[in-house]
Amino acid sequence: MDLFSNLLHGIASVLSPTTVLLLLVGVLAGMVVGVIPGLGPSAGLAILLPLTFGLDPVNAIVMLAAVYYGAFYGSTITSVLINAPGDAASVPTALEGYPMACRGRAAPALILGALASFAAGTVAAVLLALTAPAAASVTSSFGPPELFLLVMLGLLTMIILVGKNWVRGALSVILGFVIGTVGVDVGGGEQRYTFGSTELINGIPFIPVAIGLFGLGEILWTLYNGVHQKGSAPVDVRAKSAFWPTRAEWRESGPAIARGAPLGFGMGIIPGAGATVASLMSYSVEKGISRKPERFGNTGAPAGLAGPEAANNAAATGAMVPLLTLGIPGSASTAVLLGGFLMWGLQPGPLLMEQNPEFAWGLIGSMFLGNVMLIAVNIFCIPLFASVTRISLPTLAPLIIVLCAFGAFTVNGSVIEVGIMFACGFIGFFMRLYGLSPAALVIALVLGPSAEQTLRQSLIISDGSFGIFVSRQPSLVLLCVAAALLLMPLIAVPVKRAVGRRIARRQADSSESAQQDNAQEAERS
């Protein structure tokens, strides 16, 4: 009953005209950012974060959350119309949506994506309201040792899941830690790596780094890959039959959405997994159980679009669970949100829902209203967003770069921070070029000071003994989970090879039996 009343109170708290207007602005801004090739949720949040400094914390975070899940659908539009995923999580959408657009089904593909986003976002918001208080009650007893291990567990997950080469993921995390050490030592008070600069006494600011890596860096990477040279698919909005999905497409997409929403929310809760892993897993599931898997990636399968879209948006909401209850960002986008929390004096963690219930439940309640706005804007503005995708990226790129510089300057009015933004932009480009992860760097940069502080506190409590990490039951559980993550790649490789050999053996046996049947038929004839 308390849960239901808290949720109703949270929804009522965001029904003021000002908050509703900011929510609508956030959804629109997020979709526009997502529509621009090369940008995504992380870049949109980083660029627009400085524009919310004049707002009170609740309205600011509600607007940024709207930008967050609005941008996830914005990348769907570019994936379907010009085969340019805004981020890795939208790759399955491009694989199925673009072939549908090429055969005149662009508008139905966009509507299916919108409805999948709405349904999964609503389900995930309900699950968030159910799981966040429970998770907060469990973690409220955690001390510095457990908090340190949680941070390490999140970073370890990011390293393992960042790509095929875990060494590059580790290098990305280490680089984020190194940048986070600049400033004043939290223990002794001495300056570290400031090189005599008063601008660096408080450390390298988070906002210029995030804007550079995700804003400028992604634009440079997109131009380097030639995404701006791709054309757009036509969207026919005149004929009703060409605009709305058919009954067969509805029937195929419904079960895929029902499977993708809980899968995405579960993967979103795991720090480091997030929307990308959830989207790809959903795509694999839908292709594996489909009666016509040959359509996937060729003519376009509605289930292959709706399932990953549902998983994508549900994972975005699921990533809010570790952010709100543990203060650990589950993705690069929630790392930017965490930076906004800290700048407004809000400390996400086990006590957030007790000390700031209006803020926490208002944020959760805004997601229900935001999903309603998202579906309305998506359906009615499809022709408008289709026209935005026809604007050439060389025209948009200079405007985005100017906006990045303006956003970095408005934080503290510092030209040096603008220089940091440009430097991080080129660093982000070369990280993408050589297979490193800007997302892992940003998460490590945000969590680095917290990891250092909780480690120092743990060692002070234990008089310098590392035995405190094995003397407490919650710490032992977290260490076992970390050990399982470390063993996962070692187990996965031989299992994958064994499965591959078994599949190859079955294919060879089936081909031999087919040859024998053909030979017997030839003898009979």
From TrEMBL:
Alphabetized UniProt keyword annotations: Membrane, Transmembrane, Transmembrane helix
UniProt keyword Transmembrane, yes or no: yes
Sequence ranges assigned to domain DUF112 in this UniProt record: 21-443
InterPro entries, A to Z: DUF112_TM (IPR002823)
Transmembrane segments: 20-49, 61-82, 109-135, 147-163, 169-188, 200-224, 263-285, 323-347, 359-386, 393-412, 418-447, 476-495
PANTHER family with a match to the protein in the record: TRICARBOXYLIC TRANSPORT PROTEIN (PTHR35342:SF5)
UniProt name for this protein: Putative tricarboxylic transport membrane protein
Organism: Lipingzhangella halophila
Origin organism lineage: Bacteria, Bacillati, Actinomycetota, Actinomycetes, Streptosporangiales
